[in-house]
Amino acid sequence: MNYAPRTLREFSALKDILYGSDDATSPSSSHDSSGSKESRKDHITDKLLELLFASALPAADAVNGGSTMTDVAERLQDQKNRPAFSVPVMGRNFSRLNARIGVVFRLQFKIRRILIWRNPNHTFSALAIYSFLCLYPFLLILFPVVVVLFGFMVPAFVQRHPPPPSPLPSFPVPSEGPPLAEAREPRPVPELSRDFLMNMRDVQNAMDDFTHAYDKIVGTLTKPTNFKDEQYSSAVYLALLVVGAIMFVISPYLPWRHIFLVWGWAVVTMGHPKARRLLKSSHDMYVSPREHQLSNLFDAWVQKDIVLDELPEQRHVEIFELQRQKNSDVDEWDDWLFSAAPYDALSPQRASKQRPQGVRFLDEVLPPVGWKFGQNSAWKLDLRPAEWVLQRSVVGADVDNNSKWVYDTTLSGRRGEWRRRRWLRVCERHSAGEE
């Protein structure tokens, strides 16, 4: 559903949610003058953003990648205790993040070097650790302890007790005696330093990698999963359902330790430069020429065995023809209108002494939203009025099975001033692209 603020009240409510209310953001009288000036600057910036949002707030919907109003309300409810949107706050947070995110990229690059076999010794060591974890899963409990001991504490101890210099490469043995160096404490890198600029470059490239990966994943999964082509998506659904049922049955009997072990070694081996060249040449020679053929075979199976010949959903729409008696002494009735409710004695409209609502003629009755009248359907009189009277729990009614009218009754047992009968017509559900 598209949403954009159409009135000043709607935009004011949205602004209070995004930016916070004026009471929460205005400087208190106890603040000093410098704090008040800074708050006023921020407030002016927020006002400029308010005007920008008011004139160009995009109305993205869930179909085009946006969020529905339910999702928006839930996200805003979850974030109601967090700071409101502000450009200065965003700038400060980005600077703080950029000064500390280097450790994430260093870990990423180390993992990448292991996967591409930059140093075979490191890759084989990682594979050995992975093999032990696959064969002995209980070692996963010790993994965080080992990381803390040998990834943080041992290097920190060697930093304070550096080994004596040696012309030959050797295992770093800490020196004996008191500490010879100061303990190193991780600190954020200074702004506009080399590391800070490198982190900005890595953040920029990470955003580009994420967008490319997102577009690739969405482009791959959209066609088989969004039922735009119902035959194709139904075939994929059926295949996944069968595979899932088979895996559910046989999974307790599979050697998962050895499967993970083999797959892990296979994935890392495929990252070797020689293996990548071999896989690329094999793909170009054997797989690429047959991809189109396999796709055609799957499409032919879909067209042959996946048949979607369901008729549109059909339901009956009802309308009540209301008539009012001209005179209690004469059995003459005036056509009143056609209403969606029977306007019985206990209806809310009768209780509040309101007139019935509807249209004057049967041809003016429209189908519900999202439905249309059947092509060959016409209004038909309900020949079983007692059934709908019983279903709706209408009390104080006199059913005439001959004329199909349902009359009001008074306390004395006489017929009242209103009578109604029900008309039915078949409706069909709209298709997505049908007006």
Write the layout of secondary structure elements.
Blueprint: H1 8-19, H2 22-25, H3 33-56, H4 69-78, H5 87-100, H6 102-115, H7 120-135, H8 143-160, H9 194-225, H10 230-250, H11 256-270, H12 273-305, E1 314-327, E2 330-339, H13 348-351, E3 371-373, E4 380-381, H14 385-391, E5 397-399, E6 406-409, E7 415-429
Antiparallel strand pairs: 1-2, 1-7, 3-7, 4-7, 5-6, 6-7
Given as residue ranges, the uncertain stretches (5+ residues, pLDDT < 50) are: 1-11, 21-33
Net shape? elongated
Gyration radius, rounded: 37 Å
Average residue pLDDT? 81
Which structural class is indicated by helix and strand composition? alpha+beta
Q: Helical element count?
A: 14
SSE string, helix = H, strand = E?
Answer: HHHHHHHHHHHHEEHEEHEEE
Task: State the separation between the terminal residues, measured CA to CA.
Answer: 17 Å
Helix-residue proportion:
40-55%
Main β-sheet description: 7 strands, antiparallel
Assembly state (oligomeric): single chain
DSSP strand tally: 7
Percent in strands:
5-15%
